[in-house]
Amino acid sequence: MSFSWKKTFTIAQREYLTTVRRKAFVFTVIGTPVLYAVLMTLMIRPQMGDRARQMRDFHVLGVVDSSGVFAEAEPEILGTVATDFSVMSAKVSKRDSFRIEVRSLPNQLEGERALKAGEVSQLLVVPANYLETGRLRRYAMSTNIFSSQDERAVSGWVVRSLLRGRVDEKRVDRVERPARGMELLTPDRHAAGAFEAHDERREMVDFLLPFAFGMLMGLCIVIGGQYLLQGVAEEKESRILESMLCTVNARELLAGKLFGLGSAGLTIVGAWVTMGAFFGGPVLALAQVHLQSAVLGLAIVYFLLGYLFYGSIMTGIGAITNNMREAQQFAFLFTFMNFIPFYLMTSIVGRPDSGVAIGLSMFPPMAPVAMMLRLSAPSAAVPLWQIGLSIALLAGAAWLALTISARLFRIGLLMYGKTPTLPEIVRWARQS
Amino acid sequence: MLEVRDVVKTYDGRAVVNRVSFEVRPGEIFALLGPNGAGKTTLIRMITDILKPDSGTITLDGRPVGGGLKHEISYLPEERGLYRRVPVIDALAYYGRLRDLGGREARAQAAALLERVGLKDWMTKQVQALSKGMQQKVQLCTALIGKPRLMILDEPFTGLDPLNVQLLEEVLRERRAAGATVLLSTHQMNKVEEQCDRALMINRGHMVLYGEVRELKRRYADHALMLRAGRLPASVPGVRVVEPLNGELKLTLEPDATPREVLRSLMEQGVDIEAFSHSAMPLEDIFIKVVREGLGLDHGQSGPPTADEPALHAVAQGAGR
């Protein structure tokens, strides 16, 4: 069977241009990150606002002390709470001060009355045997399950009050937050044998980077695959393909679609990466993150092979099913498989040399995402033979998927009305 | 031009196309006929290289179809569609580019074709904005763009109003005059009679009729005369039965009588004859008769027809009268 690159390019060009010109595509490119940013803002900002509001509304702590331990307690609680967060610097950008008056109350009955009347914001009841049991009861009219800021404030007051007058102020401060100034030192990546201070921001980026990298890889493969699935299923449903197959052969059509729609998927991810670099660049720069060119090169290899593997499967599904709905149902299983490594992310990133991590990175349907997670994990040291074997297995699987898909594509496109049974699919796949 | 030799295609052990052989000559309009499920679509898919025959050969000017010849053949399938969310001219030019036209040439040809079929003002509109009939015309244009030498049209008249049917016929005549060859598959027998030079009918994968349309009709014609005339005498020598039919008189002749003798006899008896013609069985009736009676060419006995054989390859013995 002859193969015309010119026709393949014409098909790829058309598939790409018609896809990227659609409003839905533009919305995906721009709308998705914007939506994500808005969602994050909506999630983080109110949470921080809630914390600040909780402490602003916490004016008086009523204390019923039956133990007498807190007779000489501090009369107020002073502190600060974060009220804003800068995405650009990944740091808390604003803090508010708060002051809570501590008011002693004669008994629990009076304490509950004062709480219900709003005279105190919360009530702390200290039983007579507190020192023996350590038990305390805190009463509040409402709680916030996402914030323990009030508990922290009361806890700090308990610590300071217990030690007041018994040890000096500096020790009181240290006991209240004993490891606040503890520095973590880890091996220096740039100087062998030396240690360097572990940066918290960098730690966060170290955690997020493999996740983002794997997610981009997975999304790119899935988006390209979905475009293929949609394109083939729609064209089959609308009976366009038969007249096309008179002019081009099935391999040219399949290759053109794979190139064109894969490029559309890459365009989306490219746009997101660009936006991410623009807005998230300062965070990465502060964390001194430099992606190794070898990892980037491998990412491209894994993307191409992963896309070829999933794209071929999606094309085959599009060809054998009768409409988009049916195609989506079949495709779900494969799309899900691509994302399974994310469910095991803590295990893969935490221990990139574990059996689970190695196994997943060798299994072709999960290899692209799993290997990217392993390679970009902070303590990554993936042996070369594992990378080579993983790529070889994925390449073999992609070739097999492409070969079978091309056969299903050629036969399935002309079959209408009935979804083939599994034995029929196997028979088509074996036909040369 | 197109030569199909002993082609066989089998599915699940059943021969869907069984040793079919025919040729389509340059510049002719050739009809491919057959009842539903006869194997026409499979045969067309093999001619267009979408499917491969299990055995036999299909050549265009002596070269196997497919490969470098793909742009020489266009196909308008019975079940057809268009990309809906693109401008009409883009949808059409895309087919042109796939037939090896450059981008500019493809658009120029697309524009000319759309103007020819009366869709000049719709070029930049999206395909989905067109009526069904308009889309039919654009679909026809997809088979015309790139000026393929062989156009295979499967039920091209379906869904067209009489004016557009006339337009399609004109376009086909123009293409034919320009040297193109048309293979027409349709159930509209009147169109075959009007447009086609020769025809092949297949049934259950077997050839049952093959030859010039005029000859097929003559072969299947009744031995009768159609007459528009004044009052006839009570008995006419050589005439077995006289019956009115569609405002005329049908005179069924004795087996040994000839139309010339009967006409001469009528004139000698002073009958005023306004018009006369041979009675011919409509192609549709021939189609029904052949399919109902399960007639067919048996290759095992008669062998595949060749270009040197007479135009009409008679159906099995007894078919015809």
Description of the structure:
The complex is a heterodimer of chains A (432) and B (321). Chain A has 2 domains: 5-43 and 199-430, no CATH class; 51-179, D-Maltodextrin-Binding Protein, domain 2, CATH 3.40.190. With 432 residues, chain A is an alpha/beta fold. In chain A, 34% of the residues are buried. The longest helix of chain A is centred in the middle third of the chain and has 38 residues, at 200-237. In chain A, helix 5 (149-163) packs antiparallel against helix 6. In chain A, the strands form 2 sheets. In chain A, strands 2-3-1-4-5 form a 5-stranded mixed β-sheet, with helices on both faces. Chain A has helices at residues 5-20, 23-56, 108-117, 130-133, 149-163, 169-176, 200-237, 241-247, 250-286, 293-320, 324-343, 345-350, 355-362, 367-376, 384-412, 422-430, and strands at 60-65, 76-86, 91-104, 122-126, 137-140, 185-187, 195-197. Chain B is of the alpha/beta class. Helices cover 31% and strands 27% of the residues of chain B. Chain B contains 10 helices and 14 strands. Chain B has helices at 40-47, 88-98, 103-116, 132-144, 162-177, 189-195, 213-220, 259-268, 283-292, 299-302; strands spanning 2-11, 14-24, 29-33, 55-60, 63-64, 73-76, 150-154, 181-185, 198-203, 206-212, 224-229, 239-245, 248-253, 273-278. In chain B, the strands form 3 sheets. A 6-stranded mixed β-sheet of chain B has the order 6-7-8-3-9-10, sandwiched between helices. In chain B, strands 2-1-4-5 form a 4-stranded antiparallel β-sheet, with helices on one face. In chain B, a hairpin with a 2-residue loop joins strand 9 and strand 10. In chain B, helix 2 packs across helix 3 and helix 2 (88-98) runs parallel beside helix 4. The two termini of chain B are 33 Å apart. Chain A binds chain B through residues 1-2, 6-7, 10-11, 14, 18, 22, 235, 238-240, 242-249, 414, 416, and chain B through 45, 48-51, 66-68, 70-71, 73-77, 79-86, 94-95, 97-100, 139, 142-143, 152.
